[in-house]
C-alpha cells in the first residue's frame, strides 16, 4: 500500500510548500499529492484553496494575482513555529524539484469553483517539459477536467475524487469514463465499494487517512494507496506491520 503525502507532510509543515514536499520525501513517502490553480497571468501554481486567506498572510482569490505577486505572501502562516517564510510554489518549480527527487506526484486539478481556462493543457505542458509523464497521475472532484486530461494525454492515469457520500457502482463508473483509480473519502468508504472497484479493476487511493484504525482497515481491504497528512508515521507503521 503506497503512502501518498497529502499536500506534502502537511500534518507537521506548511501545506503545499517546498518545505512540506521535501520533508515528505525525507520521511519516505511513495508519492506526493498536491493541488494546482491558475494565476491572473496564466501561471500554474501550487495551492489548495481558491482564496489565499487560510494558508497565507494575504487575502483574496488566486486568480486575481499574478504568480509574482503571490510569491510575496507567506504560505507558512499556520506554522510560524516551524519556519518564518515559505512562498507559494509555481508548478514549474515543483516539477523541477520532483524530477531531481525522483518522486511520483498526484496532481489535483482545482476546477471545482472556477473552471480555469486551459489549466489542463498548461499543467500537461509543464509535465512534458520536465519529462515527468510516467511519474504523475491526476485527480479532481470535477471529472470533466479528468476527461479533458485524457483527451490531451490518453495514457494519463486519472483518479475520480469523491466526497463522503461516495458513488454507487464506483468501479463501473470509473471504468466507463477511463479513470483507472477511485479516490474516495475514507469516512464514507465501505467494503462493498472496495469490492465493486475490484470487480472492474479500479485501484483505490483513499483520503485523508490519519488514524491507525484507518491504516489497518485499508491495508486489510487491500487498498492500493492512502493519502495522509502524516506520511512518516504511516510509512513507519506499514513497514513495521508488514507480514
Automatic annotation (TrEMBL):
GO terms for MF: phosphoric diester hydrolase activity
InterPro entries: GP_PDE_dom (IPR030395), PLC-like_Pdiesterase_TIM-brl (IPR017946)
Every GP-PDE domain range: 1-238
Pfam families (UniProt xref): GDPD
GO annotation, biological process: lipid metabolic process
Chain segments annotated as coiled-coil in the UniProt record: none
Xref: PANTHER family: GLYCEROPHOSPHODIESTER PHOSPHODIESTERASE, CYTOPLASMIC (PTHR46211:SF1), GLYCEROPHOSPHORYL DIESTER PHOSPHODIESTERASE (PTHR46211)
Name this protein carries in UniProt: Glycerophosphodiester phosphodiesterase
Species per Swiss-Prot/TrEMBL record: Candidatus Enterocloster excrementipullorum
Lineage, broadest ranks: Bacteria, Bacillati, Bacillota, Clostridia, Lachnospirales
Amino acid at each position: 500500500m503506497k503512502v501518498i503525502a497529502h499536500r506534502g507532510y502537511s500534518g507537521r509543515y506548511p501545506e503545499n510548500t517546498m518545505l512540506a514536499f521535501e520533508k515528505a520525501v525525507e520521511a519516505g513517502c511513495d508519492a506526493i499529492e498536491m493541488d494546482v490553480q491558475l494565476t491572473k497571468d496564466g501561471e500554474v501554481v501550487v495551492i489548495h484553496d481558491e482564496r489565499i486567506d487560510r494558508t497565507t498572510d494575504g487575502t483574496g482569490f488566486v486568480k486575481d494575482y499574478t504568480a509574482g505577486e503571490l510569491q510575496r505572501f507567506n504560505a507558512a502562516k499556520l506554522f510560524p513555529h516551524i519556519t518564518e517564510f515559505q512562498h507559494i510554489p509555481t508548478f514549474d518549480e515543483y516539477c523541477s524539484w520532483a524530477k531531481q527527487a525522483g518522486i511520483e506526484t498526484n496532481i489535483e486539478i482545482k476546477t471545482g469553483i472556477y473552471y480555469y481556462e486551459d489549466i489542463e493543457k498548461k499543467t500537461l505542458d509543464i509535465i512534458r517539459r520536465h519529462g515527468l509523464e510516467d511519474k504523475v497521475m491526476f485527480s479532481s472532484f470535477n471529472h470533466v477536467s479528468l476527461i479533458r486530461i485524457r483527451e490531451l494525454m490518453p495514457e494519463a492515469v486519472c483518479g475520480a475524487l469523491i466526497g463522503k457520500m461516495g458513488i454507487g457502482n464506483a468501479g463501473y463508473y470509473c471504468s466507463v469514463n477511463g479513470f483507472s483509480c477511485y479516490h474516495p473519502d475514507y469516512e464514507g468508504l465501505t467494503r462493498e465499494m472496495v469490492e465493486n472497484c475490484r470487480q472492474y479493476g479500479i485501484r483505490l487511493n483513499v483520503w485523508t487517512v490519519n488514524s491507525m484504525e484507518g491504516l489497518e482497515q485499508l491495508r486489510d481491504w487491500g487498498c492500493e494507496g492512502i493519502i495522509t497528512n502524516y506520511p512518516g508515521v504511516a510509512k513507519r507503521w506499514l513497514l513495521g506491520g508488514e507480514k
